[in-house]
Write the structure tokens for this entry.
Amino acid sequence: MQLQVTNSPFSQEQAELLNRILPTLSETQKIWLTGYLTAAQSQSIQTAPGTQSSELTVQSSEAAVSKEVTILYGSQTGNAQALAENAGKTLSEQGLQVTISSMNDFKPNQLKKVKNLLIVVSTHGEGTPPDNALSFHEFLHGRRAPKLDGLSFSVLSLGDSSYEFFCQTGKDFDQKLEELGGTRIHPRTDCDLDYDDQAAEWLQGVLGSLMQDPGGSQESSVQTSSLQVTESVYSRTNPFRAEVLENLNLNGRGSNKETHHLELSLEGSGLSFEPGDSLGVYPENDPALVDLLIQEMNWDADKEITVNKQGDVLPLKKALISHYEITVLTKPLLEQAAKLSESAELQELTLPEQKEKSKAYIEGRDLLDLVRDFGPWNASAEEFVSILRKMPARLYSIASSLSANPDEVHLTIGAVRYETHGRERNGVCSILCAERLQPGETLPVYIQRNQNFKLPQNPDTPIIMVGPGTGIAPFRSFIQEREETGAEGKSWLFFGDQHFVTDFLYQTEWQKWLENEVLTRMDVAFSRDTNEKVYVQHRMLEQSKELFKWIQEGAVVYICGDEKNMAHDVHNTLIKIFENEGGMSREKAEEYLADMQQQKRYQRDVY
């Protein structure tokens, strides 16, 4: 966007300066600038004699800002934590005294002392809080929650609108804080997978509210120098194109599964990671599926459309391949589509009383199903595409140690194929990797840090790892790292899959680590090799006495994989082991596991 002198109060010189600086500003810098100007309206900004109006410099101005702000985050994959830390940095730059804490680390009895509270929280699974928010969520919704009549608060909620309980945890906190007497300083913002713009607007609103009403009698200096453009780094919004070095199928001939081991080059990116972090990958839709969609709608594949707020333009087919999500339906998408359709059936499906029916329709269907089922459509290609979500990144647990593999990152990706509603369906990213991605090609990637899934700081601490199937990925990273650092703590891996002969992922590596005693012991469960299906939780029960002994010795337990089934079963198995081996009641066993989680001795990377 260019500032035109003819319709602005700026001189030609000022307009040129603004047009040079504005496109270079990051979101944080834009928010800072907004807060600065807001504060300046109610303060006398002192400038040195001779300073030009085109220079934006705060000369040690004293703003009457003394507010203390507490930011609590609940985060499973690291998105909410990153947003909380960004918010803290931005508010601190405005002279606010900011405390940032995971909900798990925050002492609930301190809540009564908090005056300004910002909640940044994701919703995990089917409407449940992330692991590190469970205890605080339980406290706030329990009998011990205090009256919070003096509290000012705001909630930033992250979620996925393809789930029924979209942003439910954030809604829970927002409602409960109001019920306890708190007052909103800014309305709750519910963010979908593409959350950057909404999160920036929320932070701008919060900052504006805090700066307009500084309060208190103390003064704190807001000191800064002229705005400087910082060097760009690769991130979620600016991914690095990583070259594919290797793409191997780990499963043997005759397997029912196809699991790919990807090795990507990070050379020249400056990206780094730790064991337990994830890699975000921006995939592309299957061109064949895009062709079917364009054909069904009778669109021109070469027609250029605008794909973002910056005004970037792409041919329609390219935009649908690389920029938009077309394989998942959501309730908001159905509601927007109903406005573009003449179908009375679709319009009825979006009515509140049809909630269960619309939920059933959404399950397992994609955009091609939608356009086939509910035409004709009264919209141009650009109008229709504008209601679609941006292509979300897929997060994969990193399967390598940077120390062991400098300038590389490895992934373990299971190919997803299934049939539903009369059509074959494919996982967007997994089938890209399985069928179309060749060595020498590139993938847009970024590092997603996960502080909730980390090796113990003390290398002598024993670790117990439970990771069936592709859940093995982060534990390969763990053991590579421990081999490099010479960690001497005991390590125990539980791994499971279908068949020993075809599905023992990274078998030779695990055998080598066992021989070298980098890995202390390993128990495996191959569910289709026996008459009765045997899973990792069964092996854990078989070794319950030794397992409990390790835990009593201070071992940290890690779970990675499917949340709905495996992680749930393993969780209950641990409780059963505590009951049997520790002589605990069910209630005490649950408390014991919750206490382990509080101490970061029970960590989960589940999906």
Q: What stands out?
A: The first strand starts at residue 62 and ends at 63.
